[in-house]
Amino acid sequence: MRLAVIGVNHKTAPVALRERLSFGSDMPQAITQLSSQVAGCAIVSTCNRSELYVGITDDSAADEMMADDDVVQTMPANLHAVAQWLAQFKGVAFDEIAPYLYTYQDSRALNHWLRVAAGLDSMILGEPQILGQIRQAVAISREHGGVDREFGWLTQQVFAAARTVRRDTKLGEQAVTLGFATAKLATQIFDNPSELSFLLVAAGEMNRLVAHNVAALGVKKIIIANRSPARAEALADELQAMATAAGRQLQLQLATLEQLPEILPQADIVSSCSGSMQTLIDVAMVKQALKIRRHQPMLLVDLAVPRDIESAVGELDDVYLYSVDDLQHVIAGNMAERQQAAVEAELLVGQLVAEIEAQMQVQLARSHIHNYRQMAQDYTDSLLSEAMAQLEQGQDAKAVLEQFAHRVSRTLMHSPSRLIRRSAQYGDNKVLEMVSHELLHSHRQSKSSQ
């Protein structure tokens, strides 16, 4: 089996096309169809990419030309068939998607998959969510018959290698989004996230992303204060579904903006991004909250412009106040560190790809050895059945056994002899010497053990 990938991502295709090629509830049906054409498959579909990772066995090539990193290349016939299937399954004309597709095979495919899994190919460099999304894609494919033993083994190597990249480099250590930066600050200020309460002031898109990152820490309670109850309820349902999927308990409370003075004392972490022209949280309100909290520390993040939280709040003891500018400065510095870490990660990916390919060769050799041994055993059993039949018919035992031994040895010697001749023919002296030595050595060993 050879690995190949075909797909589109945020660098090669506009969002309108990525939407048309995305997979959702149709994933099981897609896997069932695709797996009948390839030797294992996984479909990775996120907001930034739709990629088909497939095992292929046919080396033939077609004349169709495809673009790959602005270089026109011939697409192998097996991948052309996969691309045609993708267009047909999604109801999109092949000529419409062809200019946006990229294809990789063998080392390049493995390198690409590992880069994607490690977050090196993400819109946000080093983001950690993609590895979980790939795991989920493989799990769905396995559930619907798209992952056999060989392809499954390869996916496990990719997962292990991606973990090595993230463990051995600083690729994912520094926060480079506002949501991730907020969650990172929380872990630096508080020891036990599972005991924390998080107050979300406004349920817009920016705070929604912050809520996802903070909720992922496993906080105990989330309070959503919003003008529109419907939007607050929708976000609450979303966060509850996340907690349930992760096997965590989560308390949720909805409130109005007018209730902020009452609910603020409950909050260890506050993220505010309302778009209001008025200050929502002032010094007096925070002082009162601190008094009720007996001056337990509070992290307040103000992502709004104009600001929701009075700037003087940052001067209070036991309060950590960060504005959107503060976080942007942190993110800018962290991005530079991530880019440096990415250089190290790319080098490590190259090493890991070489190691996985070496292991794949060992796996392939084992498969060949198994097949050869099975063939030899089947042939020997067949000859033995013939010999037994001859003996039952009363034929001379010595003649039958001599014929049996001759036919077995002649057949089993044929392939090694041909290998020696070919090694000599192509001038591969090292292989010739190694094969000859191993065959003679194994013969001497078997004689000495008798």
Automatic annotation (TrEMBL):
GO molecular function: glutamyl-tRNA reductase activity; NADP binding
Binding site for NADP(+): 202-207
Residues the record marks as site: Important for activity: 112
EC assignment: 1.2.1.70
Domain of life of the native organism: Bacteria
Catalytic reaction(s) noted: (S)-4-amino-5-oxopentanoate + tRNA(Glu) + NADP(+) = L-glutamyl-tRNA(Glu) + NADPH + H(+)
EC supergroup of this enzyme: oxidoreductase
Pfam families with a match to the protein in the record: GlutR_dimer, GlutR_N, Shikimate_DH
Entry annotation: catalytic residues: 47
Family, per entry: Belongs to the glutamyl-tRNA reductase family.
Cited HAMAP family: Glu_tRNA_reductase (MF_00087)
SUBUNIT field: Homodimer.
Note: During catalysis, the active site Cys acts as a nucleophile attacking the alpha-carbonyl group of tRNA-bound glutamate with the formation of a thioester intermediate between enzyme and glutamate, and the concomitant release of tRNA(Glu). The thioester intermediate is finally reduced by direct hydride transfer from NADPH, to form the product GSA.
NCBIfam families hit by this protein: hemA
Protein name as annotated: Glutamyl-tRNA reductase
Species lineage: Bacteria, Pseudomonadati, Pseudomonadota, Gammaproteobacteria, Moraxellales
Gene encoding the protein: hemA
